[in-house]
Structures are given as structure tokens and as C-alpha cells.
Design goal:
By secondary structure, this protein is α/β, with parallel strands linked by helices. The protein is built from 15 helices and ten strands.
Length: about 375
């Protein structure tokens, strides 16, 4: 695919380790009795971690309820309310589950957040090996952990930071070479080679607001009414649904005010046909190159949208949680609303927390029809 989606904006990691405030985890009352504690030990209940600790007389250590160590005999086990109480009773922390440290989710989040801060402040992007050594884990483990918590690879996050720096430098004016070096590029060759992927055009043209860029556009029928398809030399840059051709072209011109919108060459009809087929059959996948434009945060949201399987949905709050920013629900909704590539970036798969269909720029009826088509209920 010609356009690679990346991320940039700071990631706010907020692990939910307070079980008393999380209905999906246990509460202190749930582990008040010894029988409840024994049950938690038997199933290695991670939700019990932090509510109590247990020590083993024969080993001299104390552990979390979820510790993977071999179960101890009942007569050798004692329960403690805190690490301090276990220590005062003469036991040392287990080196396997580390009950003396913050919860694992919190430690992992802090590890990844620290790596993000390093990439944001570094003049030259750190290597995966450097980041892993800083975190004190193997490169393979760090890579897997980083992607699980952020949704992207360390390389993608670092590239997004570089993209943001370039855009910010060009936006304030000044020489392109200054923007190049301030973004961490050591050679002009690598900078101009990377520019199309970061900016969608040359640095000079981006600095001028896209002045002189050529966009081809065509409108065709589809099962949802009329569909506008616009593209550049890099790929499809807009897919819009509607009923009025004039309105569709007006909205395209407003989105790309300095670009030259031209009638397409005959070969562009193949792209239009593929888009129409995809709109009518969204569960079959999309293979055309995309020219994706948006802020780093928007791109991150759009990438997460494309990971929602066809026919399935996610709420705005769920999507924000997947991004590691559970409080950014409104920002996620804004990114969905800013999407210019209907169906290709499936913002129709995002719904309200109560399951209702809301907030689709091309109409709720179309949103419902797209979901029905993906679930095999629509007429295609």
C-alpha cells in the first residue's frame, strides 16, 4: 500500500489497576474470607493481586495470588494484607511475581511510556535494541509489548514523531533544510526520499499548502447513492457518499482548496470501479493504494479503525482504550468525523456506548446499510 499510516501524538498510558473502581475486577470484599483467598490462589486470579498476599513458610517468600509458582501446601501458607505486613513477618518478596513492585500492567505501561518519551525527545530515533536495553528486557519482548499497548510498532511510532517534527517545522516557515535537520535527518537524500510518505507531496509544496497539486475526481452510482472517488499519483485521497454531484464536488474543493481538481484519465475508471465494488461489498477487502492525510493522532485512530473486522463494531470509548488513551473519546470521535475515505477507513464500524448508530458524516441510513452489507444482511 502506497500510504503507510503511523502515529505521533503523545500516548497517555492509564492502566486500570484499582480493582475497587473497575467492575471487571474483584473488590476487597470479594477476598475477605480465607476460602475466597484459597480459591483465588487455586485459579491464580490476577484480579486478586493487590488485595492480599500470601507467604510460604518452607521457602521464606511472599507472593501475589496470581504467581505462577508451584502451589504450596495449606499448612505452609499464611495470608497478609500488604507487602509490609509480609516483610514484618519475616518473608522476602518472590523474584518471580515481584509483589514488592507496582502491578505488572502499571510497570509495563511505564516502560512503554518511557520509550515513547525517549523517541519524542531524541534527535535521532533510538534503535529497537537501544529501547529494549533501556527497558531492561529483550528486543523481542519489548517489540511485542509496545505493539500490544500502543497498537503500533516502535518503528512506526518513531516515524510518526519524525513526521510531526517535519510538519511543525515547515508550518512555521523557514528553510526546508532547517526542518530537515531539526527533524533528525542527517542527509538531504534520505529526507526527500521520506517526504512523500510523511507529507503526501514535496516539502516545498506542503509548505505552500498543496498549491499546484493535481487531484483527479469522478462520480459514479453505487448501492448507497452516488460515490465520489478522488485520487493523486500516490493513491485514493477521498471517497465520499451522497446524492448530489455538485455538493460532492464542492466538498472536495473545500477539502483541497489549493489543488487542481481535474477530470481523470481513462485509466482512473478502474479505480472508480474498484471503489464502487468495495462500497457495495465492504466485507471483501480493499486493495487500492491510499493517499492518507491527517494529523498523527487522526492517523492512529484510522489505523485502529481498519483493525476492526468487517461486520463487527466498537464504541468510541473502546477505541480510545485500544489506543491507550481512555479519556480521548471526543478526540476519537473527531478523528472519525474527519475521515475523508468512506468505507476504506471504516468509521461506520464505530458506534455509541449504548449500541446505537451515531455520528456518521454520510448519514445514519448509509452506516446501517454498510454494516448490514458486511454482515450479509444487505442487498448487494
Amino acid at each position: 500500500m502506497a500510504a503507510t499510516m503511523t502515529t505521533a501524538n503523545r500516548v497517555n498510558f492509564m492502566p486500570k489497576h484499582d480493582a475497587a473502581e473497575n467492575p471487571k475486577t474483584g473488590t476487597a470484599q470479594a477476598y475477605a474470607s480465607d476460602s475466597a483467598k484459597w480459591q483465588a490462589l487455586r485459579i491464580r486470579d490476577v484480579n486478586a493481586d493487590g488485595h492480599f498476599y500470601y507467604s510460604v513458610k518452607t521457602t521464606g517468600v511472599y507472593c501475589l495470588p496470581s504467581c505462577a509458582a508451584r502451589p504450596a501446601r495449606a499448612e505452609n501458607v499464611a495470608f497478609h494484607a500488604s507487602p509490609t505486613a509480609a516483610t514484618q513477618a519475616g518473608f522476602r518478596p518472590c523474584k518471580r511475581c515481584r509483589p514488592d513492585l507496582p502491578p505488572r500492567a502499571e510497570r509495563e505501561a511505564a516502560m512503554v511510556a518511557g520509550a515513547c518519551r525517549s523517541m519524542e525527545s531524541a534527535e535521532t530515533a533510538p534503535t529497537l535494541t537501544d529501547l529494549a536495553q533501556q527497558a531492561g528486557v529483550s528486543a523481542h519482548h519489548f517489540h511485542r509489548l509496545f505493539k500490544r499497548l500502543t497498537g503500533v510498532t516502535p518503528k512506526a511510532y518513531a516515524l510518526a514523531q519524525r513526521q510531526t517534527r517535519v510538519q511543525e517545522q515547515l508550518r512555521v516557515g523557514g528553510p526546508v533544510t532547517a526542518a530537515m535537520f531539526n527533524a533528525g535527518f542527517n542527509s538531504s537524500g534520505r529526507f526527500y526520499e521520506s517526504a512523500p510518505g510523511m507529507l503526501g507531496m514535496t516539502p516545498r509544496r506542503w509548505q505552500a499548502g498543496g498549491d499546484g497539486e493535481v487531484i483527479w475526481a469522478a462520480i459514479s452510482d453505487c448501492t448507497l447513492g452516488r460515490v465520489l472517488v478522488a485520487g493523486t499519483a500516490r493513491g485514493v485521497c477521498a471517497i465520499a457518499l451522497g446524492d448530489d454531484d455538485v455538493q460532492l464536488m464542492t466538498e472536495l474543493a473545500a477539502r483541497f482548496p489549493k489543488a487542481k481538481v481535474l477530470a481523470p484519465e481513462p485509466s482512473f475508471s478502474e479505480w472508480v470501479a474498484q471503489v464502487v465494488h468495495f462500497v457495495d461489498n465492504p466485507a471483501r477487502g480493499f486493495s487500492l493504494p491510499l493517499d492518507i492525510r491527517g494529523t498523527a493522532f487522526q492517523r492512529r485512530v484510522w489505523e485502529a479503525l481498519r483493525e476492526i473486522p468487517a461486520g463487527q463494531t466498537a464504541s468510541y470509548s473502546e477505541l480510545a482504550g485500544r489506543l491507550g488513551q481512555p479519556r480521548a473519546v471526543r478526540a476519537v470521535a473527531g478523528a472519525c468525523a474527519a475521515n475523508a475515505l468512506a468505507v476504506a477507513i471504516p468509521c461506520h464500524r464505530v458506534i455509541a456506548a449504548d449500541g446505537k448508530l451515531t455520528g456518521y458524516r454520510w448519514g445514519i441510513a448509509r452506516k446501517q446499510q454498510l454494516l448490514d452489507n458486511e454482515r450479509g444482511k444487505g442487498e448487494v
